[in-house]
Specification:
globular; about 120 residues; Aspartate Aminotransferase, domain 1; 6-stranded antiparallel sheet
Length: about 120
């Protein structure tokens, strides 16, 4: 994995795991962030290359805009029809990391119980 991809993946993972009750799991060998028992973010590299930053998140509000970005597609396995978007980005074409962190935030808020979202906003 390139140094830039490794750094980006590490920063996104750290951000995802900073949310209330967020924890790391490896249900299919890849890394996911869960809140309680529900996945809100899948992290890692694209299977075809170690040079990509890969992220899948649920985007109920910004799905359409996110899909306009280069390197995005509806998440496979039928998740795309429920607002999940997958980003497969070479680090040099990646938007500002704060944009990706914003997508993680939106996904957490979409998946987490309302009590945790309220606590996050307090």
């Amino acid at each position: 994995m390139s140094k830039a991809a490794k750094q980006a993946n590490a920063a996104l993972k750290k951000h995802a795991l900073s949310y209330p009750e967020a924890w790391e799991d490896h249900p299919w060998g890849g890394t996911v962030a869960k809140v309680r028992k529900k996945i809100f973010c899948s992290l890692g590299t694209a299977p075809t290359s170690d040079e990509f930053v890969c992220l899948s998140v649920k985007l109920p509000d910004s799905e359409v805009g996110a899909l306009d970005l280069e390197g995005t597609e509806p998440t496979h396995y039928g998740l795309g029809k429920h607002g999940w978007v997958t980003f497969k980005l070479p680090p040099e074409d990646m938007p500002d990391i704060e944009v990706l962190k914003g997508y993680i935030d939106e996904s957490y808020r979409a998946i987490a119980p309302k009590t945790l979202v309220k606590a996050l906003d307090a």
